[in-house]
Design goal:
Elements (H helix, E strand, L loop, with lengths): L27 E4 L5 E6 L8 E4 H13 L3
Antiparallel strand pairs: 1-2, 2-3
Length: 70
């Protein structure tokens, strides 16, 4: 069995959401302060869970959405 990895630590003041969604309440916030990782959380529940993605996987997903592939 492999050892559990420690949780990624994101800078608390580095969370942001798209400027296009600033007036909306149904948003996610993103944090890119950790090396090679991106955190995503619900803006309505900032103390709740954080999904952590490899930076390369997050970029691939965002590019796919932007191009209409997803």
């Amino acid at each position: 069995m492999s050892a559990a990895k420690p949780p990624v630590q994101f800078a608390p003041d580095a969370w942001f959401k798209s400027s296009a969604s600033a007036a909306q309440n149904e948003c996610v916030e993103v944090n890119t302060s950790a090396h090679a990782a991106v955190g995503v959380r619900d803006s309505k529940a900032p103390a709740g869970p954080v999904l952590t993605f490899a930076a390369s996987a997050f970029t691939t997903a965002v590019d796919a959405v932007a191009s209409g592939a997803l």
